[in-house]
Amino acid sequence: MPDPVAVNSMFSRIARRYDVANRLLSGGTDVWWRRKLVRSVAATAPRDVLDLATGSGDVAFALGRRLPPSTAITGMDFCQPMLDEAEIKKRQAGGFTNLTFQPGDGLNLPAADASFDAVTLSFGLRNMADRARALAEIHRVLRPGGHLFLLEFSQPYGWFRPFYYFYLRRILPILAAAVTGDRSAYEYLGGSIETYPGHAAMTAEILRAGFAEVNVTRMTAGIVALHQATK
Question: Is 100 exposed, middle or buried (0-12, 13-18, 19+ CB in 10 A)?
Fold first, then answer.
């Protein structure tokens, strides 16, 4: 499992160029992935949402644009430089009075039991030192009937794997180094994607955490999966 100190340091180094790198390395497809996530959240009409591992706040802002102003949205991350970027974006955008950012560790969430109707977690679970503990914490802070929305890299369809792994190992680090100046960070990220469980194994982990009714939507030849689960 990832070392949290190393992960925090890595994201601190790339925080300022993180959004640009995401758009480039995904060919802009990350915007579509998040749009699918936000539509799924909106369909459940939550009163309050925790966006865990919010990073620079892309999902939190997308939720703020889509959900009613009465919906409270909390963006939480354990990396302060990423939260600083989110706060800068909030000031520049104006509005978003129902959106707040705060520090928080996914393995020990600073929230009471049954605090949220929905928890979103996008491309952050694979960077946590203990996935089972993180899922248990999410389960704890959700109200009964609340929903987890987990958007994460997954394992692609078999025919696409050789091309995808070549991109992760050979192309992605070069492009990332050009954008962020930090090749090692994206070598780690590529490796974390390659070793992450497929959608079926991830479903099993979510069920072991106490969730039910897990539905999976695979996207872009399976390289990304959206798991929706109910407490």
Answer: middle
Whether 186 has a pLDDT exceeding 80, the answer reads no
CA distance 212 to 231: 6
Around 55, how many Cα atoms within 13 Å sit in the side-chain half-sphere?
A: 20
Q: Phi and psi at residue 169, in whole multiples of 5°? A: -85, -35
198-227 pLDDT, tens per residue? 999 999 999 999 999 899 999 999 999 999
Task: Give the CA count within 13 Å in the CB-facing half-sphere of 44.
Answer: 22
User: Hunting for tokens 């203990």 — which residue is that?
Assistant: 130
CA 52/CA 91 separation, integer angstroms: 20
pTM: 0.94
> Where is average pLDDT lowest: 58-72, 111-125, 138-152, 158-172?
158-172
- Tell me which H or E stretch contains 203: helix 199-208
Contact 151, 226 (CB under 8 A): yes
Please choose, from the candidates 126, 146, 122, the residue with its C-alpha nearest in 3D space to the C-alpha of residue 53: 122
Q: Side chain identity at 176, as an amino acid letter?
A: A
